[in-house]
Amino acid sequence: MKKFRKVLDGLTTSSPGGTIGSPSCGSAAGTPTAAPTPKEIDVQETLVSENFQLCKTVRHGFPYQPTTLAFDPVQKILAIGSRTGGVRILGRPGVDCYCQHESGAAVLQLQFLINEGALVTACADDTLHLWNLRQRRPAILHSLKFNRERITFCHLPFQSKWLYVGTERGNTHIVNIESFILSGYVIMWNKAIELSTKTHPGPVVHLSDSPKDEGKLLIGFESGTIVQWDLRGKKADFRIYYDEAIHSVSWHHEGKQFMCSHSDGSLTLWNLRNTAKPFQITFPHGKIQKDGRKESCKPILKVEYKTSRNSSEPFVIFSGGLSYDKAGRRPTLTIMHGKAITVLEMDHPIVEFMALCETPYNNEVQEPYAVVVLLEKDFIVVDLTQSNFPIFENPYPMDIHESPVTCTAYFADCPPDIIPILYSIGAKHKKTGYSQKEWPISGGTWTLGSQTYPEIIITGHADGSIKFWDASAITLQMLYKLKTSKVFEKPKPGEGRTAELVEEDPYAVQMVCWCPQSRIFCVVGISAHIILYRFSKYDSNTQIVSLEVRLQCESEDVISPSETENNPCFSDPSSHSPQPQHQHPASPSSGTPEGVKDSIPCLRVKDRVTRMPPGYQAELVVQLLWVDGEPPQQITSLDINSAYGLLAFGNCNGLAVVDYLQKTILLCMSTLDLYGATDPYQRLTRSPRRNRQSTSVKGPGRKLSLPTDLKTDLESRENSFSRSRSSSVSSIDRDTKEAVTTLQFGESYGRKSDALPTPCLWVGTSLGVVLLIPMSIPTEEEERLEEPVTIGPSGAVLMLKGSVLRFAFLDCMGALIHNPYEVWRDFNAPEDPDRPRKRKLVNFSPSSSQDASGEGHLAVVCSERQAKVFLMPSQSCLFVHNITESSFVLRADVVSVCNSVCLACFCANGHVMTLSLPSLRPLMDVNYLPLTDMRIARTFCFTNGGQALYLSSPTEIQRITYSQEMCDNLQEMLGELFTPIETPEAQNRGFLKGFFGGNAQTFDREELFGEAAAGKASRSLAQHIPGQGGVEGMKAAAGGVVGDLARARIALDERGQRLGELEERTALMMTSAETFSKHAHEVHKNCWERGLGLRKPG
């Protein structure tokens, strides 16, 4: 708690009656009042450092660069590994967990400890990790680093604590999962193959225990060699040498046959009775050519051989195997069931697939019901229970990257009605034809947290589409999709200037501006265009209005400061009269005859009446024009205010203000002309076009105008900063462009002499200058649609270091002043004579929240380098804080946290900071995320409630919180990955099967692999690393009564199983002893009778 007082001189007072309830009208200049009196401002700052803590909350989207997957058939949860060391674990909707290996090494393979709440990951740095999933945030319990051999394949039998690990050298090691220590039992490659074989069999590509006998291990080598190893006898039962390289092996559940997939596109079926040659060889996609030879086919990378109770025919599912001559064919998954062959074409290459089966036991009928297919950029699940194999509707947001994300916006605490209405309209456009069955990955538990409020994330994409997402309660669900490209005519090949400006993605979204209360939505595109949308629940037939703006300036056409005072551009009523659809309004550069011939926009707006479905409907398009063969500079800033009916945007040439109600351009000026006579640098007018760097880019790598090279961007920022620190004209290049970097409409004081707040536009530039532009807006609805809006720069200038990023306004009590807005009304709704539709405005004037009017307000201004708080209307600087000297701020927002407000900043050096308001005390400074990619800079955004997000990869959104309260409540908000479930009982195999077929349950791995029998492994082979989770983490994870009961039940089951095994062994020993006793008695009797070495008594 901090209380500060500041005595402020020169603060004007006004008459008590001067309150404002709506956007004010009249003169932009206020009436001077009585002599200024000192005013004392008391602000109770409630935020302290203890209110802040930074942590990741949840990650949404498709795992970037996936490598492998695994499924727990009892818990019904799925894990996906990635090339960057990430692991995503998915269950029912809401159960979505992200883990990251610190090493960042690619995840090669995943193995669930089925129904035990644990996961083994094998990484490319030859380390095995054991993750504890019995806690909401999984942690590593153990790691084992192999020093001399590279891991290529792992296999963990169901209900076993011994993990088989195959290596690149062809050896097979065995790891105890409980202690994560290597056993001394090793299957060396030279023992596995025949001694007479001279060539190395290659890396181990497959390991599996025989369904018929767990004491038999099938080892597949890359070269085509297959060995069944008798673990008890420590010898090979059989060896198969096949000509083609092996990619995968799959058993029939009876353990008498197995199938292999090969590099030549063939499948071989092997019978254990005769392993000299394959029982069957098939080329599923290889046809016989005219000359009698088979077509050459691509490798079959994986095959699964599954049986079903309802059919005598097994399922054979495989990926790849297509013939080489069919160029351009998409990747396929083939499902063979009897004579029926179904080929499913995929949009992306298949990384891996897996059949989901009813039973976890490999010696039972498998009964596959679905196939999970992991693609390079998608994730689908196919329903095997229906003959047409439909896919399931995916409940996770795996299509964020459907088109590359180019910008994001995050809105917390939205109006509660906005999410249902967006969902209802978006649901009408959903795809159909999905499987009617429930999503099969249904594990874990998730409940709606106690602290939930409506949150919306908006993503803009390279193809011009916009997606609205429901982000409430740390989940993500698509609500509504908008395609901005529908506003424009499709360009014909080589037509227009679009191809020269951006070869790809001419509709790419650069920024969005949304007013949730009025539902007005604005989109800025890469082709220097702005589209304004209104929301309607009804369809309409409308013609889109198009405005064209020449935002360029020539030195000979620039208006001198003396002309600015009476410039008709600001207030001439004729410029506000209704104009035709395509407008070419007067602007500083329209005088040259040569420029007129090139006055065309980048895109062509549809010039006919268009039917628009319910949802967001385009009303107005504003486009910048080409001038003298040069493309328009891209738009760098945008703001819209629904209460004022105004839209402002700027670029490196200047500023334009559009009245979207009257469809007219109010202001179109170069940045330099906005100063008038108050230019702090005393620059001469100049033409930016003399030294312009064209935005035309050749080549496919360009998606946006945003910098892709961080070093170049840093250098340009440094140059900008060095210029902004010096006020001498010699330090500023006269051809330097001063871009408009941020804009903000609001009720403020345009001049120091103003007594009452009026509508103003705050303008921030790349040279650290803040300009105030007061406006006079008619208040009556009819007048507003007919009378002109008066607008003109006031000459008020404030200075900061570095490019200006953000404005916000506080009242004199330190509370945030929200922007005025118009309450949403549906323009297409049927007319109701009893309730005529009128504009309803909600205004948050600085004086409306206080007893005495005219107390002024505080303006928070943040730049790349520093933050300042000014008192308005005196424009005196109350507080200043230099945020960074060595870096620069990328994103800054004034946000509400814990019923107060603060300034949140994200710097290029990765620091996330918060500052108190208005005193700008540092509250938090965390070195969180080094800026390695401009994608992060482009998409990072803060929102209220202590939350933020950024695009952590091209396909994933990472949400974080900087609120201690949310960090404390995060455990309750996250889903539980593990739920206590009894392991299904194995089917009764029958007496004869168990007696003659070899009982797998009697195989005791402990006797073979334990230290007593196998000894210790070489210490130099692998190094054990204890994890941060530790044993305590495992014990604490399944806390609570349910966890205790589950552990007790598991312990009892294990004890009962051990007792049962002990009883069986005791019975066998007793039988054996009895047999031995009888045998000994017989021998003794025979000896007596024959008198061999025994004396008779007496």
From TrEMBL:
GO terms for molecular function: GTPase activator activity; myosin II binding; syntaxin binding. PROSITE patterns: V_SNARE (PS50892), WD_REPEATS_2 (PS50082). The gene is STXBP5L. InterPro entries: Lethal2_giant (IPR000664), LLGL2 (IPR013577), V_SNARE_CC (IPR042855), WD40/YVTN_repeat-like_dom_sf (IPR015943), WD40_repeat_dom_sf (IPR036322), WD40_rpt (IPR001680). Residues 1-37, 560-598, 683-733, 828-854 are annotated as: Disordered. Residues 10-37, 573-590, 721-731 have a biased composition (Low complexity). This is Syntaxin-binding protein 5-like. It is a peripheral membrane protein. Residues 1030-1090 form the V-SNARE coiled-coil homology domain. Pfam families: LLGL, WD40. WD repeats lie at residues 239-274. It is found in: Cell membrane; Cytoplasm. It comes from Myripristis murdjan. Its main location: membrane. GO terms for cellular component: plasma membrane; SNARE complex. Keywords: Cell membrane, Coiled coil, Cytoplasm, Exocytosis, Membrane, Protein transport, Repeat, Transport, WD repeat. CDD domains: R-SNARE_STXBP5. Residues 710-720 have a biased composition (Basic and acidic residues). Belongs to the WD repeat L(2)GL family. GO terms for biological process: exocytosis; Golgi to plasma membrane transport; protein transport.
